[in-house]
Amino acid sequence: MRLASCxxxxxxxxxxxxxxxxxVKVIAPGWVHxxxxxxxxxxxxxxxxxxxxxxAVNCVTPTYNxxxxxxxxxxxxTDRSNDSIDSDSSRGPTPLGRKKPDLTAxxxxxxxxxxxxxxxxxxxTSYAAPHVAGALILAWDYGIWDPALLKAWLINSAxxxxxxxxDVEWGWGYIDLDAAYDQIDYTLVGSVSAYDKWYxxxxxxxEKVTIAWKKHSGYPLTDLDLYLYDSNGNLLDSSEFTxxxxxxxxxxxxxxxxxxxxxxxxxxxxxxQTQTFGLAAGSPLQPVSAPWWWGGSTPAKTSLADRKxxxxxxxxxxxxxNYPNPCNPETWIPYQxxxxxxxxxxxxxxxxxxxRTLDLxxxxxxxxxxxxxxxxxxxxNDEGSFVASGVYFYTLEVNGKEIGxxxxxxxx
Length: 412
Known about the structure:
By secondary structure, this protein is mainly beta. Among the domains are: 2-144, no CATH class; 310-412, Immunoglobulin-like, CATH 2.60.40. Helices cover 11% and strands 35% of the residues. It is built from five helices and 25 strands. The radius of gyration is 24 Å and the shape is elongated.
């Protein structure tokens, strides 16, 4: 394992591609001067992010695994409450909408060694990135080595600043090593190869769960999604970014809430069809089988009569991923209703043509997750013929209003 903390300026490039070697890279997105030493092709090879002085990421590069660091002004005191983002710190996202920067660290008036000897005071992301590199070294000393897990851990424990979740200035948040130390034992490395990986535990209001995974050279980015449910199957939060290898969910309210975490593998092109990820949380989580309301094993000491009792009323209208997916030919489409409503599922082919309408009529409020509650599709169109293999999209319509759209694959 190697750690490269580096800045991007004229003629300065990181060591090695982060998709091609076992290396954690912490990068300060510095200003790039248009000079003969600037080699865009080399930067693309090194998989790094380049920022112009115009404060926007303007070089489309395949950086996924590096940790991009923004700079904050800490006012040279120990009070974090008055810290602010530095006006010279580059802003995200990338031109293609990817979420960079990842983290923010102090980067104004930092005392450091000088290349000519002695000490100097400097400012910028070049002085912010070493804070994150130092945090990683401390984690290594503790025994955490997995690069994706290290990234998930620092992001999950970061203090959320600016807009909730990721934002263009602070990224996922302001690095907080006190919180990181408190959460270091709530980290784990997992893998998912077919659809879902489940975890359970308890969470308190404000706690987050974050996953990060590695993009492998020569393969498309694996698309993982992250979901947070309560013990009755009500969806509390979800994260479904398609262009990034970080997902995060958060519990907004409650104390000691029993929860399930679902890591869903939407697509994976790796040879073994298995994606390893790092998971970080604010409380302990344990791997479990799919919960009974998802079609898994029935929990112990729960009678059939109890399982048939109406579940607690859902708080939101939501459409979930169908299962199985890919399907051949039948599949179930789970959804959730915040109130009694008339429900219709529309299924479209890849050209946007309507192939099937499932009018479910009036449905009761709650989580319609299990096979006896979810919408059922037999793989046929409205004419009664089986549809061809391919990509299909389905929408949830509640009382005439479209709630959401998801994708499924028919594979025969």
